[in-house]
Specification:
Blueprint (H helix, E strand, L loop, with lengths): L1 H19 L15 H5 L1 E5 L6 E5 L4 E6 L2 E10 L5 E6 L2 E10 L3 E5 L5 E6 L2
Antiparallel strand pairs: 1-2, 1-8, 2-3, 3-4, 4-5, 5-6, 6-7, 7-8
């Protein structure tokens, strides 16, 4: 009987420790049922900006910007190998942004200069 009680105690403890260590991102969700790609593919508005301009990370890998109803595709995006960075390619120029937070409705990216930009999902 004591072994069964010990299993009932250890299993929830193991699950709690596993979930607490699951986040790849400093301010990210500890666990999500949506993949990183599903969370990133969205229309993102920079915090403090009007809803009239936004950046879109499309499911097909395109990155576009929309302002005043006019959309321009200007590059492509992909994750690095461990999905901690977004790699953006424009022509022959490639840059990376570190993902600080990636949730369904919020995104924080840090550029190579160390500037962090926060986004919210377009409503």
């Amino acid at each position: 009987m004591k072994l069964k009680n010990l299993k009932l105690f250890i299993l929830p403890l193991f699950i709690a420790l596993f979930v607490a260590g699951c986040s790849k991102y400093d301010e990210g969700a500890n666990m999500s049922l949506r993949s990183a790609k599903a969370r990133l593919t969205n229309d993102w508005v920079e915090e403090g900006d009007a809803q009239t301009s936004y950046t879109t990370y499309a499911d097909n890998g395109d990155v576009s910007s929309t302002a005043s109803g006019v959309s321009v595709t200007w590059g492509t995006w992909a994750f690095n190998d461990d999905k901690t960075k977004v790699v953006i390619t424009v022509g022959s120029i490639t840059t990376e942004a570190t993902i600080i937070q990636l949730k369904n409705k919020s995104l924080k990216l840090q550029d190579t200069a160390g500037t962090t930009t926060s986004y919210t999902a377009k409503e």
